Input
Amino acid sequence: MTKFTLAAAMTLLAAPAFADGHASGDAAAGEEAFGRQCVSCHIVADADGNVLAGRNARTGPNLYDIAARGIGMHPDFNYGDSIVEVGETEMLWTEENFVGYVQDPTGWLRETLDNRRARGKMAYQVRSEEDAINIYAYLATFAAE
Output
């Protein structure tokens, strides 16, 4: 019984350590939501330039390997000043950060930076939190090896 109690306690204590990079949504539903809401501006293309998802859109940054990537850190993309400022804090794209950002880019940046003048360049907002969580889960399937 003691071993079981110890194992259960270790599992509960370790859970927060894995929560940041974990994608809790439905990747299949996220693929559908990505196709409806994100493809006009974003692609998912690997390091060799192979488009894995989306069309050949270039308005927003490539979302390949976004899960746990530094915010505002995709090379060869001209980010807005506010998101670059967040990236300078070494904050990562976790599910929580991604969902907050895509639902209200400017609001999330203002809250994160504690600066009411912060502005996001992304005009689109994912209305449904469930869609945002599922999109993150879908994008998390495209991770660099």
Summary: Residues 101 and 107 are 8 Å apart (CA to CA). The two ends are 40 Å apart (CA to CA). The longest strand covers residues 51-54.
